[in-house]
Amino acid sequence: MELQTTIYLMVGLSFSIYIGIAIWARAGSTSEFYSAGGAVHPVLNGMATGADWMSAASFISMAGLIANMGYGGGLFLMGWTGGYVLLAMLLAPYLRKFGKFTVPQFIGDRFYSKGAAVVAVLCLLTASLTYIIGQMTGVGVAFARFLGVSSETGIYVGMGIVFLYAVFGGMKGITYTQVAQYVVLILAYTVPAIFISLQLTGVAIPQLGLGSTMAGTDVSLLMKLDSVVTDLGFGKYTTTTAGSTLNMFVYTMSLMIGTAGLPHVIMRFFTVPTVKDARASAGWALVFIALLYTTAPAVAAMAKLNLHATINSAVNAGGDLYAPEASLKADAQPDWMKRWEKTGLLKFEDKNGDGRIQYYNDKTKNPEAAAKAAAAGWKGNELSVNADIIVLANPEIALLPNWVIGLVAAGGLAAALSTAAGLLMAISSAISHDLIKGIFVPDISEKGELMAGKIAMAVSIVVAGYLGLNPPGFAAGTVALAFGIAASSLFPAIMMGIFSKKMNKEGAMAGMLAGLFITLFYVFAHKGLFFIKGTGYLDLIGGPNPFFGITPEAFGAIGALVNFAVAFLVDKMTPEPPEHIQHMVEAVRIPRGSKIVNGAH
Q: 549 in helix, strand or coil?
C-alpha cells in the first residue's frame, strides 16, 4: 500500500474512533459536561491526563528543541515533568477536595470575591488562548504534510473534529476520547523510536540505546553525535546549555510552576470520585507521561544523527565532512525532503552553486571548522530545518515502513487535538460556569447552563481556529509563554489559597494582576510590540534580555516572585479574611476523603 493511502487510512481510523466515542459519551448534565460526572476510573483518568498534558509541544516540538539545543533542551523535560509532580503532590488533591469544577471557581470562593474570580478568568483566558495557538498550529503542520492539504485547511478540519466530540460530549466525551488519543500518541512516539534504536545500536529500548554503542562499532551513539556536530561547527551536543546557568534555572522553574498552574490539567482531577482516586490518577498519569518523556532524548539524538547522516555522507563513511563529495547532491534529495519542502518547514538554497547541500554552522566560533568550510568553497549553511519536523519526519528519514509513518501522523494529530480539547474545556467552563452562572446569571437553570457551556465551547473553537490561522507575533512558535503566564498569575494564587489561611482577597487580586502584567510587559517590550507612529518600535527595557540575561520565555518565574511579593505586601495593609474562610482553608488541608463532585458544597 502506498504511503499516502496508508496515512489516510491510519488518520481516518483514529478520527472514526474519536467520533464514535463522542457519540457514546454524550454529556447529559452539567456535572457530566464539566467533570464527566466525577465517575472516571483513576487509571483511565491517568491516561486522559497524559493525553491532555502531552500536547503538540510535547509530541511534535520537544524532541526537536532538544535536538537543536542539545543538553540545554533538557530543561523542558525537567520543567514540564517536575511541574506535573508539583501539581500532583501539592495542588491537585486539595483542589479536588475543595470540590469545585474550575480554578476561577476555587479562587472566587477561597478569596470570597467575585472580583477575584473575574481576575482568575482573565488570567486563565490569557494563558489558555496563548497555549492553544501552538496546538492549532501543530494541527495545521501535521495536516499540511500528511494529508497533502494547506495548513489552513488542516486547521479547519481539526476544528471540525474537536467540535464533534468536545461540544456534544463535554468533559465526559473529551475524557474518553483522550484515553483513545493517549494510546494512539504513545504508540506513534515509541514504535518509531524502537525501530530507529535497533537500526543504530541494536538495542530495542530507546532509553538504553541512547547510552549504547553504535551497531558494529565500539563508539557510543552520543560520542559519535558529538564528533559529527562539532566537526560541522555546532556546539557539543552533550554539554550545550540554554544561555546562562541562571537563565536555564529560571526557565526550568517557569515551566515547572507554569505547569502546576495550567487550568486544563487541574480540571482533570475533578473527574474522579474521591481525593484518594485523584492521587491515584496523578500517579498513573506520571507513569503514562514518563513513557514519552524518557523516550524524547533518545528520539532527539537519533533523529539529529540520522539527519546529518542523510545530508553529510561522510558521517557514516568516517571521512572528511568538508570534502566536496561528502554532501548530498541537490538532485538526489530523498523523497522525505521533497515532501517536507512543500510545507515550507524545510528549505534548501544552493549558495555556492555546486549542486550539493551543505548543512553546517556557518556562524561557528570554531576556527578550525570555519577554515575547513572556507577551503571547501562553502558559502554558508544551505539547509533550514524547522525543529517542529524532527519527530514527524524521523520515520521518513530512517526509511521506516509506511504504516509507521502513518501511525506518527495519527499520533501527532492526537497530541494536538487532545490538548486543544482540554484547553477549550477550560475556556468554556470559565465563561459559562464562572462568568455566566457565577456572576451574571446566578439563577440560570441546569439546562440553560449546559446550553451556555456548549455555545461557549463552539465560540472558543472558532476563536482558537482564528488564532491558529493568524498567530500573534509575540506568541507564534512557542508555548513557553503560556506557561510563563500561568506561572506568574494563577500558580501563586492557588498556592496561597491552599497554604496561607491569612491571605485575603485584596492581596490575591493584586498579586495576580501584578504577576500577569509584569510578565506581559517584559515579553511585549522584548519583542518590540510597543509602537508609536513617527518614533518606531520603542526599546523600553534596554535591549534583549536586560534582566540578568533572562529570556522572555523564562520570565514567568520572575513574574511569580512579583506576584507573591505584591500579594503579601497588600495583605499586610488590608483586613484579614473572615474567620469561616480561615477555617475552610484549614479543613481543606486535612487528609480525609471527599464526597462525589457536584460543583458545590
A: coil
> Distance between CA atoms of 559 and 522, rounded to whole angstroms?
9
CA atoms within 13 A on the CB side of 157: 20
pLDDT averages per 10-residue partition of the chain, 601 residues: 88 88 80 81 92 81 86 86 84 80 89 95 90 78 74 83 79 88 94 95 96 92 92 88 83 91 83 84 89 94 91 80 85 87 85 90 87 89 86 88 91 85 86 88 88 87 84 55 91 95 97 95 67 45 69 91 98 95 87 48 43
All cell numbers assigned to 36: 464527566
The contacts of residue 238 (CB under 8 Å, 6+ apart) are: 70, 71, 222, 225, 226
pTM: 0.85
Give me 139's grid cell.
494541527
Are 126 and 517 a contacting pair, CB within 8 Å? no
305 contacts 199 by C-beta, under 8 angstroms: no
Query: Alpha helix (H) ranges present in 147-201?
Result: 151-162, 170-201
* Residue-range domains of the chain with CATH: 3-14+36-302+399-472+479-588 (1.20.1730.10), 305-387 (no CATH)
**Residue that is written with C-alpha cell 510587559 in the block:** 521
Q: Please name the amino acid found at residue 465.
A: G
Residue 358 phi, psi (nearest 5): -100, 120
